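Lab meeting, item 3. Inverse folding demo.
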C-alpha cells in the first residue's frame, strides 16, 4: 500500500504526513499487531529506496518507508520473521508511477535509479527472501556525478582520462574553485554571459531539452514547466557546480534564468570573485549601464548584510528596507516617477545613491 503527496520539506504539513503515513505506516503496524500470534513463514514489507537514498520533494514518503525498514528490524529483534525491501523503480507502471511523464523518468534516472523490467525485479524478490536479511535494497542503481551524498563515500570515485593523465571527478567545493578560476579574468558582462549559459544548460538537462538554446532567458520557471521536484534538482546541480550553499526555494526566489544568474553572480562576488576591467580600446567609454549599477548596489547590500565584520543592526536594516521600498514606490508611481526615457544614467545613479544611502563609487 502506498500514497504519494509530494512537497518540499518546508511545504510539508501534518495533513500531508498523515496522507502518506496512513496508507503505509499505519497499515503495516496493524498487520504486525494482528499477525503476532500466527505461525508466519514470511513477513514482507514493500519499502522504497527513497527511505534510504532520499528523494527530492518526498520527505514524507521517505520517512514512511524508513519506518517500514525500522519495523522489520524491530520484528527481527523480537524473533519474528520480517524483511523490508527498499525497492527502486520498476519499469512496469503501477498505481503510484503511472502518472510519471518522460521528464519524471529522466529525473529519476539521473538520480541513479534505472527502471527494472518486471522479470528482473521478481528475480530480486526471490533472491531477497533467500538472503535472510532484515532490510535490502533491490534496485538497478547506477548513479552518475554528482553522486547523492550517501553514496559519495560508498561508490568508487568516477575517473576521467585526459591526454596526459587520469584525474578524479571533482566535488562541489572543487567545482566551485574551477568555476571561480574560469570566471576570473572575465569582464562583468562576460561573467554574466558565462553564468547564464551555465544556468540554461542545467535547466535544459533538468527539463529534458536537447539544447539550452530552447530556454528563453526571461521566461518564468513556472512557465517552463518547473515543479517542486525539478526546482530542487536544479538547486542541487547548481550548488554542485558553483560550490555555493543554495536554498531549496532558489527557483522560486529568483523566478527566471536571468534573475537567477544575477543572484549567482552576486553570491560569487561576495566570496571574492572580481571582474576584469573592459578593454578600453574595444569598449565604449561612458558611465556603466543602469543594470550594472544596480548589480553593484545589490552586491554592496549583500556584503553589508552578511559580513561578520560589520553586520547591520536592526535599526539600520529597517532603514535600508524602508528606503528601498520608497525608491521602488517612486519608480512605480505614475505621478512622481521620473520619465526613464528622458532620464540620463547619471541622474538615475544619483537617485539610487541618494535614496538608498550609498556613495557613488
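The presenter then showed the designed sequence:
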Amino acid at each position: 500500500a502506498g500514497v504519494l503527496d509530494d512537497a518540499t520539506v518546508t511545504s510539508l504539513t501534518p495533513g500531508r504526513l498523515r496522507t502518506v503515513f496512513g496508507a503505509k505506516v499505519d497499515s503495516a503496524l496493524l498487520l504486525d499487531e494482528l499477525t503476532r500470534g500466527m505461525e508466519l513463514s514470511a513477513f514482507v514489507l514493500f519499502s522504497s529506496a527513497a527511505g534510504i537514498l532520499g528523494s527530492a520533494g518526498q520527505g514524507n514518503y521517505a520517512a514512511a518507508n524508513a519506518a517500514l525498514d525500522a519495523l522489520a528490524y524491530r520484528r527481527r529483534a523480537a524473533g519474528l520473521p520480517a524483511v523490508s525491501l527498499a525497492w527502486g523503480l520498476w519499469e512496469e507502471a503501477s498505481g503510484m508511477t503511472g502518472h510519471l511523464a518522460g521528464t519524471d523518468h529522466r529525473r529519476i534516472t539521473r538520480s541513479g535509479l534505472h527502471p527494472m523490467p518486471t522479470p528482473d525485479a521478481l528475480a530480486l524478490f526471490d533472491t531477497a527472501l533467500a538472503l535472510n536479511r532484515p532490510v535490502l535494497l533491490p534496485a538497478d542503481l547506477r548513479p552518475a556525478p554528482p553522486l547523492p551524498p550517501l553514496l559519495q563515500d560508498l561508490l568508487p570515485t568516477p575517473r576521467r582520462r585526459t591526454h596526459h593523465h587520469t584525474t578524479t571527478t571533482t566535488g562541489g567545493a572543487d567545482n566551485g574553485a574551477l568555476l571561480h578560476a574560469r570566471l576570473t579574468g572575465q569582464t562583468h558582462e562576460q561573467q554574466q554571459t558565462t553564468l547564464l549559459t551555465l544556468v540554461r544548460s542545467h535547466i535544459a538537462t533538468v527539463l529534458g531539452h536537447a539544447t539550452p538554446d530552447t530556454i528563453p532567458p526571461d521566461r518564468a520557471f513556472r512557465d517552463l514547466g518547473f515543479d517542486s521536484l525539478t526546482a530542487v534538482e536544479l538547486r542541487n546541480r547548481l550548488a554542485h557546480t558553483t560550490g555555493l550553499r543554495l536554498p531549496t526555494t532558489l527557483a522560486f526566489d529568483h523566478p527566471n534564468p536571468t534573475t537567477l544568474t544575477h543572484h549567482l553572480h552576486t553570491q560569487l562576488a561576495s566570496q571574492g570573485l572580481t571582474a576584469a576591467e573592459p578593454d578600453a580600446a574595444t569598449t565604449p567609454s561612458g558611465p556603466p549601464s543602469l543594470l550594472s549599477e544596480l548589480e553593484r548596489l545589490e552586491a554592496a547590500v549583500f556584503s553589508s548584510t552578511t559580513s561578520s565584520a560589520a553586520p547591520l543592526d536592526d535599526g539600520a536594516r529597517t532603514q535600508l528596507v524602508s528606503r528601498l521600498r520608497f525608491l521602488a514606490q517612486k519608480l512605480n508611481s505614475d505621478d512622481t516617477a521620473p520619465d526613464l526615457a528622458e532620464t540620463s544614467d547619471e541622474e538615475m545613479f544619483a537617485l539610487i545613491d541618494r535614496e538608498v544611502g550609498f556613495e557613488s563609487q
